[in-house]
Amino acid sequence: QVQLVESGGGLAQAGGSLRLSCAAEGRTLPYILGWFRQAPGKEREFVAAIGWIDRRAYYADFVKGRFTISRDLGKNIVALQMDNLKPEDTAVYYCAASRIGGTKLAAEYGDWGQGTQVTVSS
Questions:
Q1: Residue 58 and residue 95: Cα distance in Å, rounded?
Q2: Residues 52-97: pLDDT tens digits?
Q3: Shortest CA distance to 91 belongs to which of 31, 26, 40, 21?
Q4: Average pLDDT of the chain, as a whole number
């Protein structure tokens, strides 16, 4: 198992920025670390993911060019830099870890953080 703790959520103005961090702890490391989000009344959706070792990055179409995912092996942290935020980015953001492979499907992730709220005002 991997324990995941998110931080960095909060309020931002449209066009502003936030940086989310996810600290991972465990005896085994995941193959993929991902970010998902869920807005009220909507389905949970994929945002971005990164390979823990190879650093290959994957993004949902609606965040390409605005969000950047990165990882720090020494600190066991995966971060999501969110720039040019839009009101529709408002959601609870979750960090997740996959040990079985895959990148964009929630069912491929076995460990989840508690979530952090991101609210973007217009």
A1: 14
A2: 989 999 999 999 899 999 999 889 999 999 999 999 999 999 999 9
A3: 40
A4: 94
3-state secondary structure of 62: helix
Residues with Cβ within 8 Å of residue 20, at least 6 apart in sequence: 6, 7, 8, 9, 35, 79, 80, 82, 93, 95, 116, 118
Burial of 19 (0-12, 13-18, 19+ CB in 10 A): middle
Is 79 exposed, middle or buried, given 0-12, 13-18 or 19+ CB atoms closer than 10 A?
buried
β partners of residue 87: none
Q: Can you read off the two tokens belonging to residue 8?
A: 């960095």
Q: Can you give the pLDDT at residue 57?
A: 96
Q: Is residue 101 over pLDDT 80? A: no
Closest to 104 in 3D by CA, of 56, 46, 57, 61: 46
